[in-house]
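Exercise: predict the fold of this chain.
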Amino acid sequence: MRPFLLLASRPEDEAADDEYAAFLRATGLDEPQLRRVRLEAGPMPPLDLGAHAGVFLGGGPFNSSDPAEAKSAVQRRVEAELSALLDEVVARDLPFLGACYGIGTLGVHQGGVVDRTHGEPISCVPVSLTGAGRADPLLDGVPEVFDALVGHKEACRVLPSSAVLLATSPACPVQMFRVGRNVYATQFHPELDVPGVVTRVRVYQHAGYFPPAEMEDLIGRISRAEVSAPSRLLANFVARYG
């Protein structure tokens, strides 16, 4: 089997390693089957996308909608590299699944509007499948309404004209979409379980997602969540394309 590729951009080793472990668990892949490239660490190496069964793009600290002058040199480089990669992914309709930062990146690339209108605090929210979502093979076995973990400052406010809406939620209308047949993005985190989100709460307590003094209360609330359905997307992705 050709390996899958995880593109990551978290500079904090604890969060980056926990994200990689989460993708391994949810996909059922082992390390040789899931190659990781940390984009924040240096320029993207040459990638033969045809040598990979599919590409995952994880979340991270960057916001696509930030003003250009507020973006670091690293963010601008990563965005340029991902834009060039998405040119090929979309043109060839290659298997791709971007989570959280992935929906902003793909949304901007496809001409959608990404801004801070529909940001969501770190929480567990109900996500509903659309008619197209219920018919999509990547969502096979996923309930029509399911709980998912979120936490994002920006979201896709206007769906790209090229996209099909697959899932929505009350506070964030665009929770998942598809471009072509094989290019996907989610606003929620399909890889995350409760221990994983607790790790991120601790790592990112000073990143502006919540007042640091409220961290323990937030962990208490989020620890009561029961989240199992979203990871089915990742297992389906591997089964479909592996």
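Check your answer against the key: The CA atoms of residues 112 and 161 lie 7 Å apart.
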